[in-house]
Amino acid sequence: MKKVESTDLIPSEIIESKIFLIRGKKVMLDRDLATLYQVETRILNQAVKRNAKRFPEDFMFQLTKEETENWKSQIVISNKEKMGLRKRPCAFTEQGVAMG
């Protein structure tokens, strides 16, 4: 997985806007984390699946159907982007983001 170069700084406002509070934890969703790493979401999820032992539930979890619907209702997201969700997103905690 290609990582963002340290010289390619991402404004903190952009990162902060991608952090959600779910299950009482600050998390970043797989699609947003993949964008930061400049890879497709499916590539990120494949890498996580191959290394599942490195991502226990306190590092990463999949949103429930209800959590996914709640997330969609809280953000402004186009219909095209909503339709692109084939699976419920995975949420990465701060520890999970660091493992990426």
Could you give a quick summary of the protein structure above?
By secondary structure, the protein is α+β, with helices and mostly antiparallel strands. Helix content is 45%, strand content 16%.
Which class best fits the helix and strand makeup? alpha+beta
- Total number of domains: 1
Radius of gyration: 13 Å
Strand and helix order? HEEHHEHHEH
Strand content: 15-25%
Detail the poorly predicted runs.
none
**Span of the ends, CA to CA:** 9 Å
Residue-averaged pLDDT: 81
Shape, principal axes of CA atoms? globular
Strand sequence of the main sheet, in spatial order?
A: 1-2-4-3
Q: What is the share of helical residues?
A: 40-55%
Using DSSP, what is the number of strands?
A: 4
Descriptive tags:
single chain; 100 residues; alpha+beta; 4-stranded antiparallel β-sheet; 6 helices
Write a structural description.
The protein is α+β, with helices and mostly antiparallel strands and 100 residues long. The chain has one domain (12-99). It is 45% helix and 16% strand. The chain has 6 helices and 4 strands. It has helices spanning 12-17, 30-37, 41-50, 65-74, 79-83, 94-99; strands spanning 19-22, 25-29, 60-62, 90-93. It has a 4-stranded antiparallel beta sheet. Strand 1 (19-22) and strand 2 (25-29) form a beta hairpin. Helix 2 crosses helix 3. The longest helix has 10 residues, at 41-50. The radius of gyration is 13 Å and the shape is globular. The termini are close together. The model has no long low-confidence stretch (mean pLDDT 81).
